[in-house]
From TrEMBL:
This is ABC transporter permease subunit. CDD domains: TM_PBP2. Residues 1-10 have a biased composition (Pro residues). It is found in: Cell membrane.
């Protein structure tokens, strides 16, 4: 019996078969994905060795951090609740922390930490601005890049000795002020000035590393955005504010945190050489206080308590800075 002819206007059989094939392939692919999903959900998609491979690769780094960082930190925190001297090894509760906050030197060191937090934007802005000029290839930018990084390779002891000569009461800095008709300043002997002088020297000595980090961040910028802003007639401050700063948000976060950590933990050499914590304890920072209690007063438990407080301050300040920077990045 002859087959019925297709209705008028319907496509030929070959066309209908071609049209049905993609639907069949789609259904087949869906069945495969469903099977894979069921295997994934049941934990049978990968062999056991492949599932354990990421943990095996991460394990050495985790063990190193736990053994050389977290375990000593836990020991230090535990040791801070023990006594010194006649009470060595005895549990004393919170006595060491009460002693800390009753000590004028430690209180002054914590005030100076607050000052460092206030001066942090300056410490970050200086290398950021200089890196912007180098990135924009101002005349002589290659020479400037070398000169800016040079202080980072010098020892803090050498830098402190150099600036002791420059900032002496009868040194070159006051000679320049005298030539300008200004009175001399006791840079390292005035309690209200000494901490600012030491922090300024530290910023000068360390901003070369932040400059390198900023230059690495500039390498990730989309230059077409900067070119478009220039074509639209945007001035340099507007380009920096609306193009460069948002594009470097991650780099800025990194520099802010590392700079703050450096200011809290890397100024001992300068303090020791330039002021020795003076005058009148005005340049004490927690790390210098820790060294003084441990090395000079033989009070390791009290020094451990100060170290624990310093760690808590660094953690809180770092998390707060990251939260502020992330919020400002979302607003931009």
């Amino acid at each position: 019996m002859p087959s019925e002819a297709p209705p008028f206007g319907s496509p030929p059989a070959s066309v209908r078969a071609d049209a049905a094939r993609p639907a069949e392939e789609t259904a087949h692919a869906a069945r495969i994905r469903g099977a894979r999903g069921r295997r994934r959900g049941s934990g049978q998609r990968l062999p056991r060795a492949e599932r354990l491979a990421p943990y095996v690769l991460v394990a050495p780094a985790v063990l190193i951090i736990a053994g050389l960082r977290l375990y000593p930190l836990a020991l230090g925190v535990n040791f801070s609740f023990t006594g010194d001297g006649d009470r060595n090894g005895q549990a004393v509760g919170w006595d060491n922390y009460a002693t800390l906050f009753a000590d004028p030197l430690f209180v002054e060191s914590m005030r100076n930490v607050g000052l460092l937090v206030l001066l942090l934007p300056v410490a970050v802005a200086i290398p950021g601005i200089l890196a912007t000029f180098v990135y924009l290839r101002v005349p002589g930018h290659r020479v400037y890049r070398s000169v800016y990084f040079f202080p980072a390779v010098l020892s803090p002891v050498i830098i402190g000795a150099i600036f002791n000569l420059l900032l002496a009461f009868d040194g070159p800095a006051n000679a320049l002020l005298g030539a300008a008709g200004l009175g001399p300043v006791d840079w390292l002997g005035d309690p209200g000035v000494a901490i600012y002088a030491v922090v300024a020297v530290h910023i000068w000595a360390t901003f070369g590393m932040a400059l390198v980090v900023f230059l690495a961040g500039f390498a990730t910028l989309d230059t077409s955005l900067i070119d478009a802003a220039r074509v639209d007639g945007a001035s340099l401050p507007l380009v920096i504010r609306h193009v460069i700063v948002p594009g470097l948000s991650r780099t800025i976060q990194f520099v802010v945190v590392t700079t703050m950590i450096g200011m809290l933990t890397s100024m001992f050499g300068l303090l020791y050489v330039m002021t020795g914590g003076g005058p009148e304890g005005s340049t004490y920072l927690p790390e210098y206080y820790i060294w003084f209690q441990q090395g000079q007063m033989s009070r390791p438990a009290l020094a451990s308590a100060a170290s624990t407080v310093l760690f808590g301050v660094m953690l809180a300040v770092g998390l707060l800075q990251l939260a502020i920077l992330r919020r400002s990045g979302r607003e931009d």
